């Protein structure tokens, strides 16, 4: 197993959605949006580039083929 392929991020003063939208600019990463943090990793997108966990304990909702985080979040009524 390789080390250093992922990070869970919180930034004081920023909501997770704000962090995720900024992180989207970085190519080659996956973004998982959680209630109080953002998970970022460099694993190839499988099953998708983005996922959302609305409440801890819920299964993730995957973006499928959606290439824009904002569009995915709109479809999930998060934005």
Distance between the terminal alpha carbons, to the nearest Å? Answer: 36 Å
Largest sheet: 5 strands, mixed
Q: Can you tell me the overall shape?
A: globular
Helix tally equals: 2
Helical content class:
10-25%
Q: What is the helix/strand order?
A: EHEEEEH
Give the structural class.
alpha+beta
Number of discrete domains? 1
How does this model look, in words?
The protein is of the alpha+beta class and 79 residues long. The chain has one domain. The protein is 19% helix and 22% strand. It is built from two helices and five strands; from the N terminus they run βαββββα. The chain has a five-stranded mixed sheet, with helices on one face. A hairpin with a 4-residue loop joins strand 2 and strand 3.
């Amino acid at each position: 197993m390789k080390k250093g392929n992922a990070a869970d991020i919180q930034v004081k003063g920023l909501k997770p959605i704000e962090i995720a939208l900024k992180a989207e600019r970085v190519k080659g990463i996956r973004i998982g949006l959680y209630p109080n943090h953002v998970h970022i990793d460099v694993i190839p997108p499988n099953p998708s580039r983005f996922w959302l966990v609305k409440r801890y304990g819920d299964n993730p909702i995957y973006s499928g083929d959606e290439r824009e985080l904002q569009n995915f979040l709109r479809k999930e009524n998060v934005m």
